[in-house]
Write a structure and sequence with these properties.
Blueprint: H1 2-31, E1 37-41, H2 46-57, E2 63-67, H3 70-79, E3 84-87, E4 102-116, E5 130-131, H4 133-139, H5 150-155, E6 167-171, H6 176-188, H7 190-200, E7 216-217, H8 220-228, E8 236-241, H9 242-248, E9 254-256, E10 262-263, H10 267-274, E11 278-279, E12 285-286, E13 302-310, H11 316-330, H12 337-340, H13 347-358, H14 408-433, E14 437-438, E15 444-445, H15 448-468, H16 470-503
Parallel strand pairs: 1-2, 1-3, 5-9, 6-7, 6-8
Antiparallel strand pairs: 3-13, 4-8, 4-13, 9-10, 11-12, 14-15
Helix pairs in contact: 1-16, 6-7, 11-13
Length: 504
């Protein structure tokens, strides 16, 4: 009898818990501004996309994004299992394409960087490694295996590296980062890259790096995690978007550019190089001129990331959410590009985003491109005037990029660690002193301190609501206990009384 009662009570409590969960879920859905929009793809841009979807979630909009690699993202978009994809390269010849209309639009700029973990003989971390395209190509085609290689020594006079073996870490998945890196090597080190690509059957853009290395990782974060690991990392070098190295507080190699200077992938240096990007009619990029940018501070391995969005037959309710997010990305969201390790979009590319956004069913009207209605740090013009770009030297101001790292001497002595420290300090200071500002799309831009404060406030409110909700659940539980036990108890008393009469 006791077992049966416990079973009834367990079922009842589980039913109450299920009802509470359902009520909580429905309240969350009711507060959301439209349906959830789903996307997948690039890990190169994932740091920025995750930040921006967290920002817009403060306004009740739900964006889900899975960093599965550019190739898998494009495939998912083709299959219709996601609403948008992110990729560093467009659909390739022979690759299955969606059977519906779509467009490419830029979301952010950045520098593909070579993150490394090296030490001096005294055990201190090296932050001044210099490489050129030829050395990078030899490393990532298995043609160079020692940090004491004469080419490394020639590029880094006076630099003593404790590690001997070069542990190159590549991507194991179909990757836009791999594709962009291979395009750079194919253009700037063809004598090394082309024989390797021919032998391995992977001409640039090579999304699936040939399996010639023992260490390959799925996604940019796993590559960065490997390089930064205290056990596996010493002697390692991998290619990631600069924001990942910044997040792990690890250095990236200074790359030799066409002017003979070694430069870092700062927001300013990336934007300088991308002045030379050429765009095709579908908004895809040709970076051949970027690799040989003549400016002293240009970072040669700079590029844009794309979002791939549907423009025909799309759910207008989802289009409203996606369109609003795209406006935020192009405007206020770009203020976070520099502190996240990227470079903001200039006005001409903001317009490209807006042009594509206009063709998404249900998307809201876009604001004027001016510094009030579209608070992108690259926008300089006042309301009512033609869109004008701010000086590139100011692109890092929102996030505090310190210095350009120009010239061989500057990069050899300072390295990226100082830049990261100054950037973090400037960003925290700006966030602490500035209040949230809203662009014309009504989405507020929050600094890191404000996001943390908002999260803590939401957590406190949730905890208070959760505490308050225990009372009705407790009452409901008591009612269930009464409903189960009282009839049982009364029935037992009646049976006991009846039994006494029969046997008395």
């Amino acid at each position: 009898m006791g077992t049966r009662v416990r079973g009834v009570l367990t079922a009842s409590v589980l039913a109450v818990a299920g009802s509470a969960t359902a009520m909580a879920s429905s309240s969350i859905d009711a507060s959301a501004n439209g349906p959830t929009v789903n996307g997948s793809g690039s890990t190169w841009v994932q740091i920025a996309l995750d930040q921006w979807r967290a920002d817009i979630a403060q306004q009740g909009y739900s964006i889900n994004y899975q960093g599965v690699g550019s190739s898998a993202g494009r495939q998912a978009f083709t299959q219709g299992t996601v609403d948008f994809a992110a990729s560093e390269i467009p659909y390739q010849p022979g690759e299955p394409r969606p059977g519906r209309s779509f467009e490419y639009l830029p979301d952010v700029a950045g520098g593909t960087s070579l993150m490394y973990n090296l030490h001096a003989p005294n055990g201190s971390r090296i932050t001044s490694l210099r490489l050129n395209a030829h050395a990078a190509a030899r490393i990532f085609t298995a043609g160079m295996t020692s940090w004491q290689d004469p080419e490394i020594q020639a590029l880094n006079p006076g630099l003593s590296i404790a590690e001997t073996h070069i542990n190159a870490v590549v991507r194991s998945d179909g990757s836009g980062t791999s594709a962009q890196f291979s395009l750079y090597l194919a253009n700037e080190a063809p004598s090394v890259w082309n024989p390797f690509a021919s032998a391995q059957g992977c001409p640039a853009p090579c999304s699936n790096w040939p399996p010639v290395f023992p260490n390959s990782e799925n996604g940019s974060d796993q590559v960065a995690s490997f390089v930064a690991d205290a056990t596996r990392g010493p002697g390692a070098i991998g290619y990631v978007e600069a924001g990942y190295a910044k997040g792990y507080s690890f250095p990236v190699a200074s790359l030799l550019n066409a002017s003979g200077n070694y430069t870092q992938p700062t927001a300013v240096n990336v934007a300088t190089a991308l002045q030379h990007a050429q765009f095709n009619s579908d908004n895809t990029q040709n970076l051949t001129s970027v690799y040989v940018s003549p400016e002293p501070n240009a970072y040669p391995m700079s590029s844009y990331s794309y979002m791939i969005v549907q423009t025909g037959g799309f759910d207008p309710a989802k289009g409203a959410v996606l369109g609003r997010w795209l406006i935020y990305i192009a405007c206020g969201g770009q203020r976070e590009a520099s502190p996240l390790g990227y470079s903001p979009l200039p006005p001409v590319l903001i317009q490209n985003v807006f042009d594509a956004e206009h063709r998404i069913p249900g998307a809201p009207p876009t604001p004027p491109i001016d510094r009030v209605n579209c608070p992108n740090p690259t926008v300089a013009n006042a309301p009512g005037t033609a869109a004008t770009a701010a000086p590139i030297s100011s692109y890092g101001s929102a996030g505090g990029t310190s210095g350009n790292g120009n010239g061989p001497a500057a990069n050899a002595t300072s390295g990226p660690t100082a830049d990261a420290t100054t950037s973090a300090g400037a960003s925290a200071s700006a966030s602490a002193s500035a209040s949230a500002s809203a662009s014309a799309d009504g989405v507020a831009t929050l600094g890191s301190a404000q996001r943390e404060a908002a999260f803590l406030a939401a957590l406190t409110a949730a905890q208070g609501a959760r505490t308050g909700s225990l009372l009705p659940l407790l009452i409901c539980g008591i009612c269930i206990v009464v409903a189960v036990f009282v009839p049982f108890f009364l029935g037992w008393r009646r049976r006991a009384a009846g039994g006494g009469d029969r046997h008395g």
